[in-house]
Amino acid sequence: MNNREKKPPNQPEAYLAEYIGVLQDEQAASEHTVDAYRRDIRQFLTFLSQEQLSLTECEPGDVYHWLSGLFTEGKSRQATKLERSSQSRKIAAVKSFLEFCEKRGYVTQNRLHNLRSPRYKKPLPRPVRPIDMTVFLTDDSGQDILLQLRDKALYELCYSTGLRISEALSLTVADIVSYGAIVERLKILGKGKKERIVFLGSVARKALKDYLTAWADKFPEQGTSPVFLNMNGSTLTRSGAAYALRRRRLSLGISKEFTPHSMRHSFATDLLNSGADIRHVQEMLGHASISTTQRYTEVARERLLETYRRAHPHARREENGEGSINR
Questions:
Q1: What is the pLDDT of residues 135-181, one digit of tens each?
Q2: Do domains 12-103 and 130-261 have the same CATH topology?
Q3: Any bridge partners for residue 186, and if so which?
Q4: Res 7: pLDDT
Q5: What pairs with residue 72 in β-bridges?
């Protein structure tokens, strides 16, 4: 036998397992992306099996047929067609998987090169209203003092640095301590294993210090320990962080649009509203493409317009029908 790598057995599930390994190890895809792609492709493979189709035989019409039979349960508990954004992600997953199989020689022909995703306009990020942010970060809402300190440190960190919630939750004690007693910046390993520096404001630094000091009595600090823990001393998960935020939001009567990711949007929008260079904002957010960051300029303009309408007397009169722009 030659030294060529052995191909996995002629089974799509085996190809999928290898493809997921490539996503994780070579492309450094996020855990969220890996889980979504694994779920989408496995769902598609089940469809092909039911239709008695092979990967080589699959054509664009088969993919559209598969998507047309998929529904999701909305807030009203009624099944509705998948959103175009979900359809687009599933198509991207299937196309990427078939391209992988083609490159590895696992399919004799890839008929999905011309498969197109549905067009849709991505909704603009919705930043948190400044007043809601202030209330959220200052009101303790009667929580246990340890939880109060932890949550304040976590959300002050997200707002001060623009970190993704997954990036904040992956921080270890060593990441903080290694920068000295007064932490002003952190080195973050973001998407695609790209390193970037983020900066902490004085409020976030104090919140972190108060939290680590209080929790050190309950859980002694270790260099490899995660910074953010649950009450059992285990790593705080994304779902745990989202639950804590939702509980706090409901107790304060704050908009349901307030999410961990919306603080990242607020970070970017507030910087741009204050005149920050968009390239600098891109670097701080860890965006691979400037086009992703440019979406926040639209949000910034909308917030400025909202401020104008709320604050300028002539703008208020026009909205109330008391004046006309064509005077």
A1: 787 766 667 788 888 888 898 888 888 888 888 888 888 777 655 55
A2: no
A3: 198
A4: 44
A5: 80
Decide if 41 contacts 13 (C-beta within 8 A): no
**Percentage with pLDDT > 70 across the chain:** 75
The domain ranges of the chain are 12-103, 130-261
User: How do beta strands 195-199 and 71-73 pair?
Assistant: unpaired
Per-residue pLDDT band for 323 (boundaries 50, 70, 90) equals very low
Record the tokens describing residue 92, joined without a space.
Answer: 């991207």
CA distances from 215 to 140, 218, 326 (A): 17, 5, 62
CATH number of this structure's domain 130-261: 1.10.443.10
Average pLDDT over residues 211-236: 79
- The predicted-structure confidence for 256-289, as pLDDT tens digits, reads as follows 667 777 888 888 887 877 777 888 878 777 777 7
Exposed e or buried b for every residue in 35-58, given b needs 16+ CB within 10 A? ebbbebbeebbebbeeeeeebeeb
Q: What is the 3-state secondary structure (H, E, C) of 139-200?
A: CCCCCCHHHHHHHHHHHHHHHHHCCCHHHHHCCEHHHHHCCCCCCCEEEEECHHHCEEEEEC
| Alpha carbon distance 188, 159 (integer Å) | 15
Catalytic residues: 164, 191, 261, 264, 287, 296
C-beta separation of 158 from 168 below 8 A: yes
Task: Give CATH for domain 12-103.
Answer: 1.10.150
Secondary element (H or E) of residue 47: helix 31-51
Name the DSSP class of 253: T
Residue pLDDT, tens place only, 187-202: 787 776 778 888 888 8
**74 with 66: CB under 8 angstroms?**
no
